[in-house]
Amino acid sequence: DIQMTQSPSSLSASVGDRVTITCRASRSINSYLNWYQQKPGKAPKLLIYAASSLQSGVPSRFSGSGSGTDFTLTISILQPEDFATYYCQQSYNTPLTFGGGTKVEMK
Amino acid sequence: EVQLLESGGDWVQPGGSLRLSCAASGFSFSNYAMTWVRQAPGKGLEWVSAISGRGGSTYYADSVKGRFTISRDNSRDTLYLQMNSLRAEDTAVYYCAKGPFYDASAYSDYWGQGTLVTVSS
Questions:
Q1: Strand ranges in chain B using DSSP code E only, listed in sequence order
Q2: Which of A19, A30, A60, B18 has a CB 3.0–4.6 Å from the CB of A75, allowing a cystine?
Q3: Cα B37 from Cα B112, distance rounded (Å)
Q4: B residues 52-71 near A, CB within 8 Å?
Q5: How many CB atoms lie under 10 A from the CB of residue B39?
């Protein structure tokens, strides 16, 4: 199985900050990398698919980059509604696997 | 509007069985793969199983292989997860999710709100 490692596991940030979360795959997954946002008590929401494609309706302050084994999710200007947990997921092969999550907290 | 409504979550004793359902609406159900993802209390997301649009291809996590069975009834726009030989570590909120196309090995673009399964004596 492909292991997905996210870093950091948590971070503290302020509204207006630029936030970067990284995700590393245990082997190359080309661009089969997706990002989700989850708020407490809610279902995950797809933000980015295929490493850099923005899901319809997702604000443009979210962006993704990378290929192979190293990927990045960037929030350009953090908004109050962005405090949440973010997960990466590889869809290169089954079993699809998630990273451990990154909790973005208010500083 | 895509809607996914899970049901069937309950408390069950170890070794017991449960069947989850996910009623879909707002899209042509048989054209899309479907997935179950679970989340244990306070933990991260775990992909459980997926099924292609017509049900011909199914995939499972090693942790549930041989115990869980995914299926779908395209005439009823409903996804199922039959869970047997349940263990305490199966305790989680179970989400059903829709794929972006027919292939089962892809991301999930819409998610239900989840149903809680508790396995405990």
A1: 3-7, 11-12, 18-25, 34-39, 45-51, 58-60, 68-73, 78-83, 92-98, 110-111, 115-119
A2: A19
A3: 10
A4: 59-62
A5: 19
Return the beta strands (E) in chain A as ranges: 4-7, 10-13, 19-25, 33-38, 45-49, 53-54, 62-67, 70-75, 85-90, 97-98, 102-106
Tens-level pLDDT at each residue, chain B (121 residues): 999 999 999 999 999 999 999 999 999 999 999 999 999 999 999 999 999 999 999 999 999 999 999 999 999 999 999 999 999 999 999 999 999 998 888 999 999 999 999 999 9
CB B83 within 8 A of CB B89: no
**Residue found under tokens 């399964």:** B117
Structure tokens at A11: 């971070």
Indicate yes or no: CB of B109 within 8 angstroms of CB of A43: no
d(CA B49, CA B110): 16
Q: State whether residue A97 sits within 8 Å of chain B by CB.
A: yes
DSSP secondary structure letter of residue B50 = E
